[in-house]
Design a protein that fits this description.
Blueprint lengths: L6 H15 L5 H26 L5 E4 L10 E4 L1 H21 L10 H17 L3 H19 L5 H32 L4 H8 L4 H21 L8 H8 L2 H7 L2 H16 L12 H21 L3 H22 L2 H31 L16 H16 L5 H13 L5 H27 L18 H15 L1 H16 L2 H8 L8
Antiparallel strand pairs: 1-2
Helix pairs in contact: 1-2, 1-4, 2-3, 3-4, 3-10, 3-14, 3-18, 4-5, 5-6, 6-8, 6-9, 7-20, 8-11, 9-13, 10-14, 11-13, 12-13, 12-17, 13-14, 13-16, 13-17, 14-15, 14-16, 14-18, 14-19, 15-17, 15-18
Length: about 500
């Protein structure tokens, strides 16, 4: 067994435990431990990605129990890519948090590391029940992070977030229980095998459980109409937390993609294509709903929250189109949208502090200190997230549109993505005009803008530029990951071969 597979879980778990034991230590000590652990996670994620880049599927058996009886962690191209994306995002966020966002309480870094533990576990687990467990770990940590700093709006949004996710967790258990009662297993590879031969009398229960799982994953991934919790939760928490939450909806999208291709894929017999009638229509509705929210928002951070909804819908539209080309386009867009949304949250916080009383409200305010620098960074990030050429948002959407050519839903995909992109561009241009050119004479500005404050948003923007410069290799890797997803025999064989003595 390759112990590199479990390292992305052990590192944040040990770091979080150490930080909890250091509760009496000075803040710089906790910051140093958290920072070092996060940077080490980037190195581990790169090594893991390189290990699976050739198409290997690495299986790690906890306690050396063979699948499907024991718990397994599985790393393939997709899961390794998601772990690396999480590591890069967390490194940028922790750099920003060290500028002061982590001073509101003593347990920010503990919760941050535990959230990383839960997110990485969700990407690497090969078992449905343990997917539920890791969902709960990352959600419990996110509850604490969301409420960090207090305030009535934050508490209200946090309450909605907690209640809805508790309902989702309950439904998840119902679905898992139903599948286990019929199939006798919760290992995803084993489920995929058994679903192909499920009996007619059990078919209704399996379909109901599968759709219930889809509803839970849609709630986590902010798919309409289950997206209404997100704008309040993301728009009212601190910028560092909201930026880290940009990966949270991608956990739900990842779960949908994994279930869609592995458990309900073309080789799943009577349940093949179970999610097909739902994915594309709901994804396009999500894009429209998110765009309306962006247009109606009165704060830049609220716009960023609705942009996360738009990105969730666009990503799942690619999954709904289906096929390796569309999946690869969706994976490229996933990378872009996560980094770009996080950059908007962080930049909105910098602008809010610089505008004094006006905060990040889209109203006339004081002249911004170092306004030209802020406007330049704003322009780069907004061009990327709105889909303007030549940045990564344009490349991602162009790839999705290209993949939809000739498919049944092509007219709807083209119409929705092109029209909503134009509306988002117009809305963000109006927001930039209001923030940087509508000056209220005599109004006092806020805190001076330090160059280091822009370090994290710029780092995320530069990674986005890298996605354009290396668009070819990134897309080729996405294609390879998509083909590996659609050819599930390799995944199933690697996991279940362990039961007959093989190992990876």
């Amino acid at each position: 067994m390759n112990h590199l597979v479990i390292a992305p879980l052990l590192l944040p778990l040990l770091a979080g435990t150490t930080l909890l034991l250091l509760r009496g230590s000075a803040t710089p000590v906790r910051q140093a431990v958290s920072m070092l652990a996060t940077m080490a996670l980037v190195v581990i994620a790169v090594l893991l990605l390189l290990k699976v880049a050739d198409g290997s599927v690495l299986v790690y058996r906890l306690g050396d129990w063979p699948a499907p009886f024991g718990i397994v962690l599985v790393a393939d191209r997709l899961s390794a890519m998601m772990v690396l994306l999480t590591a890069l995002l967390s490194a940028s966020v922790i750099l920003y948090a060290l500028r002061g966002a982590d001073h509101d309480g003593r347990f920010f870094h503990v919760l941050f590391q535990m959230q990383l533990f839960g997110i990485n576990g969700a990407f690497l687990t090969g078992d449905l029940f343990n997917l539920f467990v890791f969902f709960e770990v990352l959600l419990i940590a996110s509850y604490g992070l969301l409420l960090y700093g207090g305030g009535a709006d934050r508490t209200r949004a946090g309450l909605h977030y907690v209640v809805l996710n508790l309902v989702g967790s309950t439904l998840f258990l119902f679905a898992v229980g139903a599948l286990y009662g019929v199939l006798g297993t919760l290992n995803m590879a084993d489920i995929a095998q058994r679903l192909a031969t499920v009996s007619e009398e059990d078919l209704g229960v399996v379909r109901a459980a599968g759709l219930l799982l889809f509803a839970v994953f849609a709630l986590k991934g902010a798919l309409a109409p289950l997206h209404l919790w997100l704008p309040g939760a993301y728009g009212h928490t601190s910028a560092a937390v909201a930026a880290m939450f940009a990966i949270m909806t991608k956990v739900g999208a990842y779960a949908i993609l994994r279930a869609h291709s592995l458990m309900f894929g073309p080789d799943s017999g009577p349940v093949a294509g179970l999610l097909d009638p739902w994915l594309l229509p709901l994804a396009l509705i999500t894009v429209v709903a998110g765009t309306i929210g962006v247009m109606a928002s009165k704060r830049l951070s609220q716009q960023a929250a609705y942009l996360v909804v738009v990105s969730a819908g666009t990503l799942l539209a690619a999954v709904g189109v289906g096929g390796a080309e569309a999946f690869a386009a969706g994976l490229y867009y996933l990378l872009h949208s996560t980094l770009a949304a996080a950059a908007v949250f962080l930049l909105a916080d910098v602008i809010s502090k610089a505008r004094g009383y006006a905060l990040d409200k889209l109203v006339p305010g004081p002249e911004l200190p170092r306004g030209q620098l802020l406007a330049g960074v704003f322009l780069i990030i907004v061009l990327a997230i709105s889909g303007m050429p030549p940045l990564s948002g344009f490349v991602g959407k162009w790839l999705i549109l290209q993949a939809s050519i000739g498919e049944a839903g092509m007219p709807w995909v083209f119409a929705v993505l092109l029209v909503t992109s134009l509306l988002v561009i117009m809305t963000l241009a109006r927001s930039g005009t209001m923030l940087f050119f509508k000056i209220e004479e005599g109004a006092a500005a806020g805190n001076p803008v330090r160059t280091l404050d822009l370090g994290a948003p710029l780092a995320l923007a530069l990674i986005g530029v890298g996605l354009v410069v290396y668009a070819g290799p990134v897309y080729e890797f996405g294609q390879a990951a998509a083909e590996q997803l659609l050819q599930s025999e390799a995944y199933i064989g690697a996991v279940l071969q362990v039961a007959t003595g093989g190992s990876q």
